[in-house]
Specification:
The structure is a homodimer. By secondary structure, chain A is α/β, with parallel strands linked by helices. Chain A has 2 domains: about 190 residues, Rossmann fold; about 90 residues, Pantoate--beta-alanine Ligase, Chain: A,domain 2. Helix content of chain A is about 40%, strand content about 20%. The first copy, chain A, contains 11 helices and 10 strands. Chain A has a 6-stranded parallel beta sheet, sandwiched between helices. A 3-stranded antiparallel beta sheet of chain A has the order 8-9-10, with helices on one face. Chain A is globular, with a radius of gyration of 20 Å. In chain A, about 45% of the residues are buried. At the A-B interface, strand 5, helix 7 and helix 8 of A face strand 5, helix 7 and helix 8 of B. Strand 5 of chain A pairs antiparallel with strand 5 of chain B.
Chain lengths: ~300, ~300
């Protein structure tokens, strides 16, 4: 049994701040209701925990845009496939709470699975098309799991804004689409991807990389950036993407699920730069599946292919 | 072109009351926001128009339970199958508005299809299981259409209560399930079925019945009531339902889609009275498909089979 004093000590930040944790919808609504009654606006940052600098940048954005910030921590089982890493997914709530306390976030909402999916729960929210391609094709049901849990969180917390990272670009589009289509009264804010010094996008699953894999991993960002540069310069999108796939395999990636140039809003394939476009990729490095994406900077000069 | 004066005259009720009609989400939110600011609670009654006494009873319930009542009128194309009666569905907005004005409803929200489903709209809300059986089996996609449009309406209007009729019993369960699962902050109120003097449940589609069909139609309610009585008295549910189907065919119904005894909450088949149960039926009389349902009154004395 964990004593209250131990818990408090663990979650205290470097500047001695702490953060309250609630685990039920009723509690989070009571807190948010009190904030609203006091005239505060409310920001929500949905996470699956294992917080890194990328998450913290979302929290900082919420803190800047809303009077109060609630961070949710829920490792959502419905967005994991049967062969995926639900059980192995990194979890360290005490460390997460300490990081959030240090930033000055106001509340951690960490419901259990039974609170989020009580017995009899069946309703699903799906975003056909946008949610079926790319990640949705390689991870069937993934975006239905994401859209459903985010719809729940938005109804439970009822924030004015909710912050999602561009790192999960397709997820961001799916959530924006869902919020617009269902007229959910919230503004979705997008936060730019946070990267390591060598360009690797921060991700909780980077913890799965061996030292050798970690050394090879930055090739993903380097490659999609090169593809984006070529396409911005007028190169054929399909040919350039195929060239990029070859680079990834040469760099040590075992398999490329996709490396593709898509319309930045609809994710429909594009041939050449024109409307805003995005290069998106998912590729395997050992047991780890990495995803990343970058914008095609329209009007950029033709890039040089790296050797 | 219809002049404003003509419109006003048409929608004025017998006691000279009129009702404002809005057609956009922005307008309905502004009205509801003003009510809330004045401290009023808000009721929503979603309809597809062609209002009859059944609908009006839902409106009266809302008027009794909430300070302000908004009635929506939207013939939702996504809950009609390709072979169904979307184009023929009865429409008379002026008459509907007049009826609502006479009752003292506060606002009619009658969005066009483009307002409810703008270009690019794709998101779907589905309720697997509860939404797949009975009506869902005979009308594939029906309850996804219903759940999606009701989710939208609840987000657009954001009422404290929303009223649905027990006439569409499965729909009522699907909506309740969706609201609970997605944690939508609204209370769903159920209103009992309103019947003609001979027992026929009021329904907009009764307008499709010929005089001879109208004369035969009350057999539906009579039959499911007899089945409910038998089952309450201890009869086998499956055998009694089969007997009821025979009665309907004898009474002139062309086809029975289903006549079945189900758990009143989960709609799972039941063998005998025990947990609260419901008899539900759908059957064809000429071109018209009628549905109806009644509760199995647990503890009732064994009924007598009608001759």
């Amino acid at each position: 049994m964990i004593s209250g004093a131990w818990y408090k000590a663990t979650v205290a930040g470097p500047d001695d701040r702490s953060i309250d944790t609630v685990r039920t919808v009723a509690e989070v609504r009571a807190r948010v209701g009190a904030w609203r009654a006091a005239g505060d606006t409310v920001g929500l940052v949905p996470t699956m925990g294992a917080l890194h600098e990328g998450h913290l940048s979302l929290v900082r954005l919420s803190l800047a845009r809303a009077g109060r910030t609630c961070v949710s921590l829920f490792v959502n089982p419905t967005q994991f496939g049967p062969d995926e890493d639900l059980r192995a997914y990194p979890r360290d709530e005490a460390a997460d709470a300490a990081r959030l306390a240090a930033l000055g976030a106001d509340l951690l909402f960490a419901p259990g699975t039974g609170e989020m999916y009580p017995p009899g729960d069946v309703t699903e929210v799906s975003v056909p098309g946008l949610g079926d391609c790319l990640e949705g094709e390689h991870r069937p049901g993934f975006f239905t799991g994401v859209a459903t849990v985010v719809a729940k969180l938005l109804m439970q917390v009822r924030p004015d804004i909710a912050v999602f990272g561009e790192k999960d670009y397709q997820q961001l589009l799916v959530i924006k689409r869902m919020v617009k289509d269902l007229d959910i009264p919230v503004r979705i804010e997008a936060a730019p991807t946070v990267r390591e010094a060598d360009g690797l996008a921060m991700a909780s699953r980077n913890a799965y990389l061996s030292a050798a894999e970690r050394a090879a991993a930055p090739a993903l960002f380097r490659t999609i950036s090169a593809v984006a540069g070529q396409v911005a310069g007028g190169a054929d999108a399909g040919e350039t993407a195929a060239w990029g796939e070859g680079l990834l395999l040469k760099a040590g990636f075992a398999r490329v699920d996709y490396l593709t140039v898509r319309d930045a809003e609809t994710l429909e394939p594009v041939d050449r730069a024109g409307r805003p476009a995005r290069v998106l990729a998912a590729a395997w490095l050992g047991e780890a599946r990495l995803i990343d994406n970058v914008a095609v900077q329209a009007g950029a000069r033709k890039g040089h292919r790296p050797a």
